[in-house]
């Protein structure tokens, strides 16, 4: 095709992965996170790269195309140097100089004759600058990024770079918006219009607008639409509006703070102000009748040695609390052990009996709307057990503070009663006016948890009266603001305040939190009730409310921008390019979790947007719990988007999933929507160690799609060789692009890439033997594997066979059984630090190994690994399957050698038990050499014994003669 785009021919996967990783690591300082919580926002750098990749033409000079693309992304050498904003430390400089020619090293460093260590010479300012650049150029790409701003934080390529860009593209641009306008005019006849019908947190519309595109953004969820609107109209509004928002936030903060101070509900008689109140759940032991405070641990602050200790009150049949500061390590450990709830069981400290929490919940009462605190006869009570006070004093003429941890006094408990009375006095009015939620919690996969475990049936039940009082005050002050960006900014801050200040905010005593701190409500993708929680008050509480937004001029004021809550199936706007990140078969229950925020926004949204609805539209959400409905909804959505783009229009579908059945469904969906996949690239978007929990892949596949025009059908027997070629080409391109930069792809991502390659073949033309419309609407039997799913699984098998483990010769690999291949490839995966069960499960599927669990030493989700020779011992030896393979005999020979401390024992076993020993000897040596290499892997200390004996046994077998 003459109009092929850059992204359909090549894409700098490794570099973009490294940039995405850097942006992810920025955490709360990412551009859009300041607006509010949303799950799974895609990195802005990925959106920019994808959009530029769609607009840039592919020329006959692919090398120059890549060079220009990197210049536009400021990912070339000059662009990276422009982005560099941090000095490289001396230790890194000296380490890098060691790898350079001696002339460079001696020019800038000298070796201490006594210590033999290298030290930097005294250098002038210009010499230091030259040295910084020299070292910077020698660093791997990912390490360079350590000292650089993100691409979004500078104003694009340099004037010199623009000369080269314009010369290659035949344009006359001096900024990204100008270039986008010119490229859009060439391809579409006008400034490109970019749409996202699943806009979520707003990454795609925001970056498209900032690049000068016209933008259409919609989402079924009004919370997502609000976040996207705010991204464009707050962060893209300019310094003047941002400064006005800052003043408004400050005025609201001061008004609320003055009222709290006047009420005297956060100050004690010493003038100290609280900044944290710690509460725990309390319940009556069904065995002895004592009231027991519930928590998994009674450590309050590891750093300052603060613990809660409970003393029995025989008369009242309860416990009174004492708070101790600066305790010993032993007392800290005892406080950790003395938690009264372990493994979801109440451990009564009085009678010593254990009661499952499920038993405790049998008499749970469902709370009613007017409930704001437990009733006296409720199963679970809530008890204040510690207050962290802040004392302000003057020392050496300067104002200083110190913290004190104290058990609540009678005066503190009276202040608690006052808080409750103040709230009850205002509660009905505040609910009616929307300052406090009045929405009932609908039952669902995630929202059932508060109902089931606590009996909380309305959203305000997730908040303590103290939290509701402050949030109600914020809502009251918000109502006095005129409708503007200020109003929406404060409304979003109320949502952020609620996220960081609910009864679902667990207390974290870890020293990494300094004196201890609270987590957010959504520290994971759930609504888990907890036994002890912290409430932020005082100045500590305002950290989550008072936020200084950064400004990014998106230029959207010059273009037409539409943001609206709408079902993707009903979108009516026409776009040249659709870039979407659709739901992944219930990977995140957006429609349920977002209702936490919608409860606070619903009565304010009509004031902001009279044409919007304020409902989560749960019934219309695309959900994976019903596969048939999921397929139907996705087809309707993408068929509609395809109908609303020109014949030369383009789509990118971002997709992350590792289930072959879901990928088979995606094939059907795209095909039925009239789309064909023209390219697929795997970007490592989830590479942070904190994101590796659970069985998730670290890559996002960008599926580039066009309207399907080919009507000539293919037959099933034609598909297999085509898929095989496509998978191999995909893997070869990834391996070629996977240079020394980090993060590199992991084994799960290569499997995922195989899925995507299969899609290119399966969506290109009609398939004679498959009625797609029937497949979409057909109810499948449990466990049924469709034709498409089988073809996609075969694609993974091709990938597994193609990616021969390093250290195994191809001729040896071809002689191995599926079980042997699984074990050897699994060891390589383990050596890369991969312990997720799902990766091994998918590997077994790829090799066609039905039962692989017997080969595992550990089957826990994030601790999965394979057995060593000693762990196999004498089990699984002989017979069919893995037990009868040469590899199993080799492992047993290693075990025999270890047991008798003599590699000769293993050699004798192999010569005795393998009838074709001499024919298999070369293969045995190859297997032993491969197994021996894992003896030095730092993350596999358990393998050292097996690996060392494998090396010794290899020598004996290699030198064995007739």
From TrEMBL:
Gene3D superfamilies documented for this protein: Vaccinia Virus protein VP39
Pfam families: DUF1156 (PF06634)
Domain DUF1156 intervals: 10-71
Protein name: DUF1156 domain-containing protein
